[in-house]
Specification:
Layout lengths: L1 H21 L7 H11 L2 E6 L4 E6 L3 E2 L10 E7 L2 E11 L6 H12 L3 E4 L3 E9 L5 E13 L2 E10 L7 H8 L5
Antiparallel strand pairs: 1-2, 3-4, 4-5, 5-9, 6-7, 7-8, 8-9
Amino acid sequence: MKRFLFLSILVFLVFMIWMSVHEKEDNSPLPKKLEKAIRLTRMKEYHDDDYDYTVRYPSFFEQAADSLLDKGCSRFSFWQDSTEIVQTTFVEQNADCLTLEQAMAKYASALHATEQQKGENFFILSGHIHADNGAITNRRFHAKFVRHRKLWFVQTLVYPEDCELAMRRLIQEIDNWEIW
């Protein structure tokens, strides 16, 4: 019995030493880890009951409580090591009855968008986020505005510039987003 106990402990110690020597620690930077995580993760769906739209987001993003947001809004975020990624959807009135072109010009100017794309009933804007003093920050945004009657359905993604490659899947999700 003593021999069995001794051999069991010895085998356990050898196994633990082997595991610690051969354990591969992932020392890659966070943007690389994030790229892999977003590429491989399962996407969840959120359905807004107020305006009957659906949005997809990564399963490891945290959803803000609905009670904290306005009617028709949703927010999903990821935060780690001072890296914050926020995916937001909201609905706003087209009170000025702006055409697609007028709204695109208005929001592109307000957001300092450097890239613009127009579709049949939507437009997409992206670029750097500017600080209050007008300086360019190291954060980017990507937003899709979909017009439906007198409403704008908007989905945005805000992320650090060094995570741009990691955001490809989420940007594609936003670009393909349809309200109904």
